[in-house]
């Protein structure tokens, strides 16, 4: 059984990734930690509880984490995920924040990873603030992990938030820098370009959400806002190469669940630009090995779309 710890800023694609993990066989979710990002930390906590409620898995512990980046001003992605992070489709009977654990996310992360040393696969689909704090509080945190899967960064200097910055890295560049500086466990990265090179067709999207289940109806409702943005936004369309949609966070989750989903990696050290006027938050690939870093990351290059789509389909069954 794979033991997962999931760190999210629960927007629509985080919800998709969580639902994928909940549906996967042989996966145990040890906890879900929340962090600022797509929306406020309170909304993130609420959204995770809503997803767990729909999936009837409210027994999974949820922890509240950092409410702002380490140094940068806060960003959010309300223009894409809706102001509340889940398409502004409220649930009047959503579980209350009293279900969030008293223990803070960063402490919970360190505790869980220490209790299950060498066994936890951490999937981070959000700004890396919680992870960076965990590394600073417990420098042995990365080496206690089995593996780390990140949705974030870029590999062809194309951003989706700034010219060269993907949202999760642009939202807290210092955090991304710290995490990638100190990683010592196998680290797998699903960049913005990896996701956009493997976009899903709108036909797939409809057959996915038209499944006759409560989970699929929930998805259709929370995804409606983003679908309108995708349809109407020329720049967004150009960025992903025509019609289609991306479930960014699900690409990282799928790789964590089934290693066969990724068919090729670029293996090299990576880092994050912190000071460039145009490039702050950009991930850089050290393919020439000039940084002489001991640890290399696995930057995802190609994806088995069929396997990926099967995992997505199962998420809404
Ligand atoms: C990432 O940014 C967020 O808006 C998504 O949830 C995803 O984690 C994509 O750049
Ligand atoms: Ca996310």
UniProtKB/TrEMBL annotation:
InterPro entries: Inosine/uridine_hydrolase_dom, IUN_hydrolase, Ribo_hydro-like. Gene3D superfamilies: Ribonucleoside hydrolase-like (3.90.245.10). Keywords: Hydrolase. Residues 4-309 form the Inosine/uridine-preferring nucleoside hydrolase domain. One of its GO terms (molecular function) is hydrolase activity. It comes from the Eukaryota. Belongs to the IUNH family. This is Inosine-uridine preferring nucleoside hydrolase. It comes from Huso huso.
């Amino acid at each position: 059984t794979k033991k997962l710890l999931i760190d999210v800023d629960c927007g629509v694609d985080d919800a998709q990734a969580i639902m994928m993990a909940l549906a996967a066989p042989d996966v145990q979710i040890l906890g879900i930690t929340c962090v600022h990002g797509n929306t406020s930390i309170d909304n993130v906590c609420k959204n995770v509880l809503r997803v767990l409620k729909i999936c009837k898995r409210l027994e999974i512990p949820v922890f509240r984490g950092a409410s702002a980046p380490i140094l940068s001003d806060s960003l959010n992605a309300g223009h894409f995920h809706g102001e509340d992070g889940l398409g502004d489709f409220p649930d009047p009977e959503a579980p209350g924040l009293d279900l969030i654990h008293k223990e803070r996310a960063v402490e919970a992360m360190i505790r869980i990873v220490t209790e299950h040393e060498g066994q936890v696969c951490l999937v981070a689909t959000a700004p890396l603030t919680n992870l960076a704090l965990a590394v600073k509080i417990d420098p042995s945190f990365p080496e206690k992990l089995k593996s780390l899967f990140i949705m974030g960064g870029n590999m062809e200097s194309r951003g989706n938030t700034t010219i060269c910055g993907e949202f999760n890295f642009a939202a807290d560049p210092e955090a991304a820098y710290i995490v990638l500086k100190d990683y010592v466990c196998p680290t797998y990265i699903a960049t913005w370009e990896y996701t956009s090179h493997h976009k899903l067709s709108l036909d797939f999207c409809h057959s996915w959400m038209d499944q006759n289940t409560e989970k699929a109806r929930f998805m259709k409702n929370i995804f409606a806002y983003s679908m309108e943005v995708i349809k109407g936004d020329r720049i967004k369309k150009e960025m992903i190469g025509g019609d289609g949609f991306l479930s960014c966070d699900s690409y990282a989750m799928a790789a964590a669940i089934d290693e066969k989903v990724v068919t090729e990696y670029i293996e090299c050290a990576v880092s994050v630009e912190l000071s460039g006027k145009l490039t702050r938050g950009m991930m850089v690939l050290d393919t020439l090995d000039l940084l002489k870093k001991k640890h290399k990351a696995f930057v995802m290059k190609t994806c088995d779309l069929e396997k990926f789509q099967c995992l997505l389909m199962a998420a809404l069954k």
